[in-house]
Structures are given as C-alpha cells and as structure tokens.
Design a protein that fits this description.
Blueprint (H helix, E strand, L loop, with lengths): L7 H20 L7 H10 L6 H10 L10 H22 L3 E2 L2 E2 L1 H5 L1 H20 L7 H24 L8 H26 L4 H28 L2 H4 L5 H4 L5 H9 L4 H9 L7 H10 L2 H21 L5 H14 L4
Helix pairs in contact: 1-4, 2-6, 3-4, 3-8, 3-16, 4-6, 4-7, 4-8, 7-8, 8-9, 9-15, 15-16
C-alpha cells in the first residue's frame, strides 16, 4: 500500500484513520464496562485535528520509509496528549473541550483523574509493541521524557501567576516545558521508529521549538479573539483562570501599576464583564499585532528547518501540515 498516494488531504485522512482505528481497538482491552471505560472512549472520540499523530507518522517517513511502523507510536502520542488535556481541564476547571463537556464535568473529578491515569497506561501499551525494535530503548526513553517534561511544564504554568515580576523568560520557559516538549516527543518518537540518521533526527528535534512556540502563541491569541464555536473552548478561558499569557505579561511590563492589570493579578482572573475591556487594552498596546508577528516569525523558522530535511513525499506533506497549523482557528 502506498500511504502517500493521492492529494494531501486524502493522505492526511488515511493516516488519521489508521491511528484512530488503533486507538478504538486499544480501549477494548479495558476489562470492565464501567464509567471509567465510558469516559476513556468519550474523550478519545472527541473530534480533533490529530495533528500530533500526523507529525509522528510523517517524521518517521522523512528518509523514504513507510509510516506504517509508526502507527502505534502515533496513537501513543495522541493518547498521551489527551491525558494532558483531561488533567489540565480538571486543574483549570474548564467546562468545554473541543466543543463538548469536559470529562470532569460529565463524570466528576475522581473519574476524570482515573481517565488520565488509564490513558497514560494505554499509551505505554502501544510503546510496548516496539519491544523488538532496534531503537526500543530510545522510543521508550523519549516517551517517558515527554511525559515528565509536560508534567513539569504544567506545574510551571500553574505557578507562574505567583511570580512577583513575571517576564517573557518565565513565559517561554513554561511554553518550552509544556507545549514544545510534547512536540519534541512526538517528532522524536517518529524519528526513532523510522530509524532516521542522526542529522535528520537533529533537524526534527530542532523543528519542535519554533513549532511549539508558534502553536502556543496561537492558543493565547485565539483565547482572546477566537470564536467559541470555532475554537471549541470558552472565549477568554485563560483570562478567567488568571493565567499569565504572553499578552498579560507584556501588558504588565508596559503598564506597571495599571488598575485593571493589578485587579487581574490580585483576583487571579477577570469576570466575564471585564473581558472586552482587557482585550481592548491589549489591542491598544499593539500586543495582538505583536503576537501575530511572533507567530509568523516562528512559523518562518519552522519552514526553514523543514527545507533542510531530506527531499521525500513526507517532507512535502509535513510542510503542508505546518501550513495548515499556521492558519488554524482552533
């Protein structure tokens, strides 16, 4: 089977379908028909871009190999990503995920916590399938490192509002420890499964930094100006939670002591009624435009790395996928 035959969208759908089929099958290995199994199936079947498994599959094929070997790895990183979302939603008290009620809203915190735990176990069940792979140790190591880094990044995110004088250095440390770390894990696992050369693997790892930073900045921007029916999340959710996003930190730097910003910090968030006022302040300071410029900068850096990868169908599909991410609205 030629996995890369046909138009790009056809190829992406073919790859998504293979990963999703694997995920549906793995949930059947749970022994008991409980609300826990229902929650696991529910969250895995929420509509999503499946962007991370696509990155994993394409990474594995950058030197001309078939992406088929990487399907279990791609399913593993998608399930690991889903675990982070379930636990993040509990911590942030988020009501919606991908336009649907979050797991803790539907089943309560206890089942939601267990759902995240089970998802980690299912992800590792996929990794076990590489026990005879020549790079099994590195596949396992990359998965574990990704899990640890993302967890530490989430802790930085939770504790950032407590920093007395937050700077962009704090922000990027959190982003690189959370969003970028999962991109690195995704791309590197694919590279290990595909047994890429050290040079190509280094480029793949390098790609994670601009991709992760651009993606997080887009999330911050969409939280401010995105439509809930497109993003699948409540508009201004980060601001309700009192998070120190790029725009908040920059505004604090530019306007120290500003009444609205000080209220935001002291109250750890804003009421719904104050959201338009805060967004207007960011706009007047030119921060929305500044974020857009940084997004373009990081995507340009990502494309520059992609250009250095070996010429192969997977490289062009990777370029197309990153182009889609560049203009995403959710």
């Amino acid at each position: 089977m030629n996995w890369f035959e046909g138009p790009p969208e056809t190829v992406y759908e073919r790859l998504r379908a293979a990963v999703e089929q694997s995920m549906w099958e793995i949930t059947a290995t749970l022994r008991y028909k409980t609300s826990l199994q229902q929650a696991v199936e529910y969250v895995l079947k929420l509509p999503g871009k499946r962007m991370r498994p696509l990155l994993c599959l394409l990474s594995s094929a950058l030197e001309g190999g078939s992406p088929w070997r990487a399907v279990p790895a791609a399913a593993a990183v998608e399930i690991l990503h889903t675990f982070t979302l379930v636990h993040d939603d509990i911590m942030d008290r988020s009501p919606l995920r991908r336009g649907q009620p979050t797991v803790h809203v539907r089943w309560g915190d206890a089942i939601a916590i267990l759902t995240g735990d089970v998802l980690v176990g299912l992800a590792y069940r996929f990794i076990e399938r590489y026990a005879d792979h020549p790079r099994y140790y590195w596949i396992l190591h990359t998965m574990t490192a990704g899990l640890l880094e993302v967890s530490e990044g989430q802790a930085l995110d939770l504790e950032l509002p407590q920093v007395e004088r937050p700077t962009l250095e704090h922000y990027w440390q959190m982003v690189d420890g959370k969003t970028t770390a999962l991109f690195r894990c995704t791309l590197l696992i694919g590279a290990c499964v595909g047994e890429l050369t050290p040079q190509t693997q280094h480029l793949v790892e390098e790609l994670a930094i601009p991709l992760g930073r651009a993606f997080q900045l887009q999330d911050d921007l969409l939280d401010l100006i995105g439509r809930s029916d497109e993003t699948g999340k409540q508009q201004g959710q980060d601001l309700y939670e009192g998070k120190l996003t790029y725009a908040v930190i920059r505004a604090l730097e530019l306007l120290p002591g500003h009444q609205l910003l000080e209220q935001y910090r002291q109250a750890r968030g804003v009421p719904t009624s104050a959201l338009p006022q805060l967004v207007r302040l960011f706009r007047e300071l030119g921060l929305l435009q500044e974020m857009e410029q940084w997004i373009e900068h990081y995507y340009a850096s990502a494309f520059a790395v992609i250009e250095q990868l070996p010429a192969a169908p997977a490289r062009e599909l990777l370029r197309g996928l990153v182009e889609q991410l560049r203009y995403r609205r959710r």
